[in-house]
């Protein structure tokens, strides 16, 4: 079973899906109706667009590159979807040969213009198991020494 099976999928596209961890999906449901609807519209647009960009900073923005922690530790580019003051932080990984943007942290009512660094660090740390699985899958797909693929 893949970690991808434990995610809550909020948008599906031909090239990229958008998913949230269960904890973040539950917190999303606690946002106001307008914020939820706006977030869902952003998720749908991202999945339809294939994550190729074209979003204004008011909807989707690169925030920082953060360490996942652990050994080995990976640096991951953290992005956020925005709806008024609410933010969902995450990154794109590839699981089961499918690109998935995974939201792993939420700030329901951001109070400053700058992102809260603790949220960014938690988002990266929470992405670690998904990135580990991504790397395990890639290694398993490589031809083994002395064997023909």
Question: What can you tell me about this protein's structure?
Answer:
This protein is of the alpha+beta class. It has one domain. It is built from three helices and six strands. A six-stranded mixed sheet has the order 1-2-6-5-4-3. It is globular, with a radius of gyration of 16 Å. The relative contact order is 0.18.
For the structure shown, list the relevant keywords.
3 helices, globular, disordered C terminus, six-stranded mixed beta sheet, alpha+beta, 149 residues, 6 strands
Q: Characterize the overall form.
A: globular
Whole-number total of structural domains: 1
Note the total helix count: 3
Q: For the record, give the distance between the C-alpha atoms at the N and C termini, rounded to a whole number.
A: 24 Å
Percentage beta strand: 25-35%
Low-confidence stretches: 142-149
The biggest beta sheet is recorded as: 6 strands, mixed
Overall radius of gyration: 16 Å
Question: How would you state the average pLDDT, rounded?
Answer: 87
Structural class: alpha+beta
What does this entry show, briefly?
By secondary structure, the protein is of the alpha+beta class. It has three helices and six strands.
């Amino acid at each position: 079973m893949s970690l991808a099976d434990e995610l809550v999928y909020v948008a599906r596209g031909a090239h990229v899906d958008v998913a949230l961890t269960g904890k973040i999906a539950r917190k999303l449901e606690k946002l106001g109706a307008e914020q939820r609807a706006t977030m869902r519209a952003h998720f749908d647009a991202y999945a339809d667009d294939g994550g190729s960009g074209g979003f204004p900073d008011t909807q989707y923005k690169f925030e920082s590159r953060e360490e996942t922690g652990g050994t080995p530790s990976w640096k991951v580019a953290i992005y956020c979807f925005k709806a008024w003051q609410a933010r969902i932080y995450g990154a794109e990984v590839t699981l089961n040969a499918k690109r998935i943007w995974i939201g792993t942290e939420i700030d329901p009512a951001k109070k400053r213009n700058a992102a809260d660094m603790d949220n960014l660090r938690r988002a990266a740390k929470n992405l670690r198991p998904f990135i580990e699985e991504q790397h395990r899958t890639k290694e398993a797909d490589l031809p083994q020494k002395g064997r023909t693929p």
